[in-house]
Amino acid sequence: MTGKRIQAFFLAGVLAGSLLLTACTEAEENNAANESGTEKVQTESAGESVPESEQDTVIVAMSPEAEPESGFDPVYGWGAGEHVHEPLIQSTLTVTDENLEIGYDLATEMECSEDGLTWTVKIRTDAYFSDGEKLTAQDVAFTYNQLRDSSSVNDFTMLESAEAVDESTVVFHMNRPYSIWPYTMAVAGIVPEHAYDETYGQHPIGSGRYLLTQWDQGQQVILDANPDYYGEAPEMERVVIVFMEEDAALAAAMAGQVDVAYTAASYAEQEVPGYSLFSCETVDNRGFNLPAVERQTLEDGTVIGNDFTANVNVRRAINIGIDRQELIDHVLNGHGTPAYSVCDKMPWYYEGSQVEYNLEEAQALLDEAGWKIGEDGIREKNGVKASLEIAYPAGDSVRQAIAADCANQLKELGIDATSRGVGWDEAYTLALSEPLMWGWGAHTPMELYNIYHTNADTGLAEYSPYASETVDEYMDQALEADSLEESYELWKKAQWDGESGITQEGDIPWIWLVNIDHLYFVRDGLEIAPQKLHPHGHGWSIVNNVDQWSWNNQEG
Amino acid sequence: MGKKTAFRLGRQLLRAVVILLLVCFVSFSLTVISPIDPLQTNIGQAALGSMSPEQIEKLEQYWGMNTPAPERFLEWLKGIVKGDLGVSLAYRQPVTDVIFEKLSNSFLLLVFSWLISAAAGVLLGMIAGAYRRRLPDKIIKTGCMVLSSTPSFWVALVILLVFSVWLKWFPIGFSIPIGVIAEDVRMAERIQHAVLPAAALSLTGVASITMHTREKMIEVMNSDYILYARAKGMGMGKILFSHGLRNVLLPAVTLQFASVSELIGGSVLVEQVFSYPGLGKAAVDAGIGGDVPLLLGITLLTSVFVIGGNLAAEILYGLIDPRLRKKEEVSKT
Fold first, then answer.
1. Who wins on pLDDT, A50 or A274?
2. DSSP state of A104
3. DSSP annotation of B242
4. Are A48 and A220 in contact (CB under 8 A)?
5. Which residue ranges form the domains of chain A, and what is each CATH number?
6. Out of A148, A287, A552, B305, which could bridge A512 as a Cys pair, Cβ 3.0 to 4.6 Å?
7. Are strands A336-338 and A303-304 parallel, antiparallel or unpaired?
8. Burial of A551 (C-beta count, 10 Å sphere; 0-12/13-18/19+)
9. In chain A, which residues have their Cβ closer than 8 Å to the Cβ of B202?
10. Is B43 an interface residue toward A (CB < 8 Å)?
């Protein structure tokens, strides 16, 4: 496919080139105007594209979606939300390490009260904002109260108030016990109370590793190392982030104008001279839900449940009847890992979730459930055909391909499976009665909670009808746990406690398929520091530790 | 006569306002019925997945999902009357600020390509018309046919590939050089960054201007006065510029002003290819992201452009062709 693409481009180029030369005087004008300027232009672009001469600068191309439209204001979601990453310009109280466990940034110690309703956090005293003012507990309290009042993408409804009890101690009063508060603290950058207003996002002042030097909206962000940073001084003096579509990012790499360019599996086969492919493992997963209750119509007319998938053996059969490696090879050109839960490899992941592909056992499970192969090869029970329509968000080509591949694989099980693209306006409702191809992967167990825990109003889980008292209980206990370690154990038990849960042996209301690798073209000679598992979204995560990147002289 | 002109202008203005109102209403209705979930596109499914229902409710409030559509439209209209375009939901800045920023980027690009396509189109059309059925005509005609049947984004991609990726003469995109602080950016660099997008954008406009001018030019070439001029022994160059230009300018000007809308439409795609941060890109993002105030603001502005373009064409007729001025005076009295 890529070969054809190149060929098409080449033909197109030749055609247009001849056109340009013959038909259009203005092209000639341009050329002429440029001939005199060519030399200058080339030396300039050489300056841009050979950073070996600038050992401490790196240029990274990211998706335009990664640009924070409302600015670099943590209150409006900078660093948090769909794609969680370190805010770089601001400091956070805690950080997540390579294993997604909690470490300290501004915090020096933290403590949670017995009832889980009060968190006391001590902060370091040597942190200064880039305008020279000292960062105090007052600023921390101010930030969190702002977040609670106007957070746009992060959930702070569990926070009652934040209070500075002295210069370096801040106390959080909670509305409900929330043992995973440190994960929330890891994505909340601290803003200065004295320099915070509506336009903060355009001119952020922080205490982080980098300063925002320039932001050309829709184009680039220039970050320079903060000379007053309290931690280890960044190796990369200047970080330039440019926002480009996938095609443009590839072209930019081919033209040698960027050092790191994000890319997708479909482009990964391309040879870009002077660059090599860098692949990051992720928890950016894809999977579909299986409604776990019988079909019924609610009072408001919503149809929920699915008679076929309401049977647990059917769900188990589907879970082991899909060859995940085949999906990875076919759809992702090999750039992915099999997924068995929404939180693979996170500290709260239950490792027993893993299953082996086993077509025969899957067949047996369906037989056991009473779905027998009919004359046309499709299973049926009481005259009803076994059918399943896997929906995917229209416009997402990867999810589309995964859905189509899954449907194909399910046909081998004797299920009349199809796939269909839907808009998000109907997707959520549809998912209550049919499978939908989802993408998740956050750096917080709250995701697990929201997917499997029942909703007080309906008595069923929010995104796909399912209810289990045991699972609910474990997760409630996990949120009330005294320590993170204890909560990890409870999150794991919610997945499987030996008797029930949401794994293959349990109720398996969701089928997890793949974690999609995040791919980048990286200029030879650039050493990218080891990455922690990237969350959902292909954005700023890669530069979480850009301060530790370096250029390798030998290769340059 | 002054009274009449004023009356005419007043009527035009009234018509413009009615059109603008209708445009606003239609585009607002479209955003209401479009299958876009603002939370989904702006916050994201995965982010929503780790939120509590209370937080989601807060966000629905912010994005106006719980307010009935007519109420929202009236609110917005009230603001417009006061000259307030509202606040962009995604950028969290006044719509006027966002538009101004984007427009200042697009402006150079639009003006460039508008002028280039006009000048090149008229010139090529005249040559083609003058040398009808001869080699220059054939080349130009074929070129125009191919160009007008080629989507502008594809032309943009090819140009990008040839001049930026292979020849490396021009930057890969953007309106400014990568990694250079704003004060150090020279005007020459800004122009250099606008050349390729402007070329791509003007190419699509060139074809129609050329073909129309060609038709008109053929008509002119067959006229008696050209025959007379030739008989007098006037050279081709002189014929073209003293007799041809004035006559072919009229359709060209009409077309060029009327094509302002196409230009803005084309800029959406071309800006996307060249990562050029203009108005077109902002409009797409606002539309997809359900940022209604920004989308309506941009719609309003572009409609003003288009209506203004048509109006300007009408006024210019009189200047270029005195006969039209006369005709109007005659018919009105």
1. A274
2. E
3. I
4. no
5. 1-67+240-280+517-556 (no CATH), 72-216 (3.40.190.10), 285-515 (3.10.105.10)
6. A287
7. unpaired
8. buried
9. 26
10. yes
